[in-house]
Write a structure and sequence with these properties.
The protein is of the alpha+beta class. It has nine helices and 25 strands. It is elongated, with a radius of gyration of 30 Å. Pfam families: Pro_Al_protease, Trypsin.
Length: 456
């Protein structure tokens, strides 16, 4: 009876092993023969704007009847309009309305006049939707004569151009999620992106020209990649191609310090008043609010336009680091004034513009509905109260994995690779060999007993 049971167990094991060989062979064949996923089928890379209702209303009413939109303290969109009829339409759509004197067309005309004036390094301007003004700022490097000349240009434009002097200097933040280093200095990695065949780091354009080689340590022992495309001045973005071609594990996560990270689920455009978060290798995770859009900054190296203006602080070394909110990528750190001790102004290159110009898309993860709250910033934003600001978080928390390149386990577990099939084949072969060895040993034992009994 015991012999019969052993015989049945061995037969079942052999059949299972043969089945495993067939299954593993099929898995390997499919993995080898399968085509890479179509780019159109990849996870989305564009998220809904933070204030979709406000943006839609501005688009429908036109720039002659509106002057921008922002997120109010209660989290509702507010649209600046130039007449009561437009205000009524905005309110019927569920948004707040504020009647202002100057339309977006007038505000943009004022900006055009400022751009036409002789360039003054150390100055910046942006549209302040909430005050219905164009705000021109001059840092400590601007001479009295240059400031006086620019003030005259503003006076000729009209009373809705406000002049402000600020302490410090508007500089690019050269010298982050993860630090990357080259002969040009230290920057921060922004977001991981791909063109479908190779992976890249999206970072600031002022960090280094095309051909710059980046390392992950100060001794040059770990090469990250090299800059293959970018734009600065004018814009402020660049692509660093990974030396190994792949971003590796955790490509959808941005580091925020302490071994923690935030999952990125898409890219979007921010709204004025929205609470945002920035990560950098120098100052870690910081938060604040978007104060203006389409800002222009006259850095010493050149003029950059179309930037996002915020009251988030930053310091040298944070350049290129990611700005995000609710897991949605918004921008990469360009520059600004001030520091994280006394506060300041920081400008960001919009992510959506950079992606479109470079022909790449974000490497993202599916949105996790049951994810826990994101990590807390190391310092709250100054004056960042209100329901809208308080309700926002960086995004879903995620652990930060090691350096570039996937681990063996993750590569084998990827259903698109041949690893799982090979594991099944190997396991089946082991079972077959084991059952055969057991049978041989059993036959040898039986023979020895028979031989001993026969010959005494």
């Amino acid at each position: 009876m015991r012999h019969a049971r052993r015989h049945i167990v061995r037969r079942v094991a052999r059949l299972a092993a043969v089945g495993g060989l067939l299954l593993g062979g099929t898995m390997v064949t499919r993995a080898v023969a399968s085509e890479p996923p179509d780019a159109s089928a990849a996870a989305r890379t564009l998220a809904r704007p933070a204030s979709g209702t406000g943006a839609a209303l501005v688009s429908r009413l036109g720039d002659a009847r509106t002057a921008g939109h922002w997120v109010g303290s209660d989290g509702r969109p507010v649209v600046a309009v130039t007449d009561e009829d437009a205000a009524g339409e905005v309110r019927r759509a569920g948004a707040g309305a504020r009647v202002v004197r100057h339309s977006m067309r007038e505000l943009k005309s004022a900006v055009s006049a400022l751009r036409s004036a002789p360039r003054v390094p150390g100055t910046a301007w942006a549209l302040d939707y909430r005050s219905n003004e164009v705000v021109v700022r001059g840092d400590s490097t601007v001479s009295g004569s240059d400031w006086s000349r620019l003030t005259g240009v503003a006076r000729d434009i009209g009373g809705f151009v406000r002049m402000e002097r600020v302490e410090g200097a508007f500089t690019t933040r050269l010298n982050g999620a993860r630090p990357i280093l080259s002969t040009a200095g230290r920057c921060s990695a922004g977001f991981n992106v791909t063109d479908g065949s190779s992976d890249f780091i999206l970072t600031a354009g002022h960090c280094g020209p095309t051909g710059s080689v980046w390392f992950g340590d100060g001794q040059g022992g770990r090469e990250v990649g090299s800059t293959v495309a970018g734009s600065f001045p004018g814009d402020d973005f660049s692509l660093v191609q990974y030396a190994g071609g792949e971003a590796g594990d955790g490509a959808d996560v941005v580091a925020v310090g302490g071994g923690k990270g935030v999952r990125i689920t898409g890219a979007g455009q921010p709204s004025v008043g929205q609470r945002v978060f920035r990560s950098g290798s120098t100052t870690g995770l910081r938060d604040g609010q978007v104060t203006a859009l389409d800002a222009t900054v006259n850095y010493p190296e050149g003029t950059v336009t179309g930037l996002i203006e915020t009251d988030v602080c930053a310091e040298p070394g944070d350049s290129g680091g990611p700005m995000f909110s609710q897991g949605v990528a918004l921008g990469v750190t360009s520059g600004g004034s001030g520091d994280c001790a006394g506060g300041g102004t920081t400008f960001f290159q919009p992510v959506t513009e950079a992606l479109a110009s470079l022909g790449v898309r974000l490497i993202v993860s599916p949105e996790a509905g049951d994810a826990g709250p994101g990590p807390a910033p190391s310092q709250p934003a100054a004056g960042g109260g209100g329901a809208a600001a308080g309700a926002a978080s960086p995004g879903a928390s995620a652990p930060v994995t090691g350096g570039n390149g996937s681990t063996l386990l993750s590569r084998l577990a990827d259903r698109r690779n041949v690893g799982p099939g090979l594991l099944v084949v190997a396991g089946s072969l082991i079972v077959l060999v084991a059952t055969r060895w057991i049978r041989v040993e059993r036959d040898r034992s039986v023979y020895r007993r028979y031989y001993s009994a026969t010959w005494g």
